[in-house]
Amino acid sequence: MRILGIESSCDETAASVLEMSEDTRRILSNVVASQVDTHALYGGVVPEIASRAHIEAVSGVVENALQEAGVTMADIDAIGVTNAPGLIGSLLVGVSFAKGLAFAHGKPLVAVNHIKGHAAAAYLANPELHAPFCALVVSGGHTSLYDVQNPTSYVEIGGTRDDAAGEAFDKVGRVMGLPYPGGAAMDRLAQAGFDHGHGDMFKFPSPAVNDDSYDYSFSGLKTAVINQIHTTRQRLSLPDDGALPEDIREGIAASFTRVVVDGICAKLRRAIRERHIQELVLAGGVAANSHLRRGIAAVAQECGIRLTVPPLSLCGDNAAMIAAQTYFEVIAGKFADTFLNAYASDEQAAFV
Ligand code: KG4
Ligand code: ZN
Question: What distance in Å separates the CA atoms of residue 72 and residue 18, rounded to the nearest whole number?
Fold first, then answer.
């Protein structure tokens, strides 16, 4: 089955063609047009600018994805599009485009939840992966643990009560003067910090909620790190946006990263034991973080369970992951029609 996936939930316009069957999972094309340079000027995503950029990019991106795959619309068996969660204006562009395309070419249309999409990237990384599994999705908007009994039904067993991990990485990076989005730069700065022995320079609060849930809370941690940055600037008589000495920047990034990874791993380790998890998927933009990848791999090894983590190219937003989830929605007979709407939150979309 050939699937066209379309993704426009935030600041990436993406389209991908996959060849999928019971024993084939092949990426024929995976095109991503990122708006990150535009939003970097403002220090974060500006929703209206994002919607307008999607409108300009979407038809060219889809055309490129078809061309690179060496197919035309006649060869496509189903079109999948992200319809939740995300920026509503951005989502509406992809959804409207996909509806028009499906209607014009008489193709089945499938609505895909962005978070299920992130986890579905793991099917492409590991041809042996089949539900049931447990999915830890860590992104700009989510830090959630899901019980995936079958490929289309996700039950959240733990999540963040406030900010997501990616949001915390970006905010801390921004206060330290790193360009948006700060995640990848924080990753490198933390590595330098660990290499120079600065991993314990600061003591920050854990994002693991101190109870028997599998929940996280990143807002207290984020505030503590930002306060530390401000206090250090005052102590060194630096201006409010003054550049901190390199060893302190490294120390902050490493100490922050350590507590994030340890906190995420602590809840995960308990979930694996208590829920007898055998198969784990780590996905989402923050799954690109080298320290988190190593931390989760160590937990999986310690608990003796299988782990799939997508390659870096499939961690950030892309449409191959959306097309992969589309395949499983098609197999389950879950189709949308031209009344399909987009939803900013999981709650609005009835996350089942
Ligand atoms: O999944 P994603 O591309 O978009 C959402 O669905 O939110 O995730 C984006 C997030 C951003 O917060 C970005 O800073 C973060 O993923 N990120 C990272 C790394 N690469 C991307 N965070 C930490 N370390 C990284 N290497
Ligand atoms: Zn995402």
Answer: 13
Q: Is 38 helix (H, G, I), strand (E, B) or coil?
A: helix
pLDDT in tens, 98-143: 999 999 999 999 999 999 999 999 999 999 999 999 999 999 999 9
Pocket test for ligand 1, best of 36, 90, 112, 139 (most atoms within 8 A of CB): 139
What is d(CA 119, CA 222) in angstroms, rounded to the nearest whole number?
26
Q: pLDDT (tens digit, 9 = 90+) per residue, 62-77? A: 999 999 999 999 999 9
- The 10 Å CB-count burial string (b at 16+, else e) for 276-305 is ebebbbbbbbbbbbebbbebbeebbeeeeb
Q: Which of 212, 130, 202, 156 is nearest to 347 (CA)?
A: 156
What tokens does 125 get? 């990384």
Residue type for 311, please? P
Q: Which of 318, 268, 326, 267 is nearest to 288 (CA)?
A: 318
Residue holding tokens 């399909």? Answer: 340
Hey, what's the torsion of the CAs at 169, 174, 177, 178, to 10 degrees?
A: 50
Q: How far apart are CA 129 and CA 335, in angstroms?
A: 23
Residues having C-beta closer than 5 Å to ion ligand 2: 139, 317
Q: So what's the pLDDT on residue 68?
A: 98
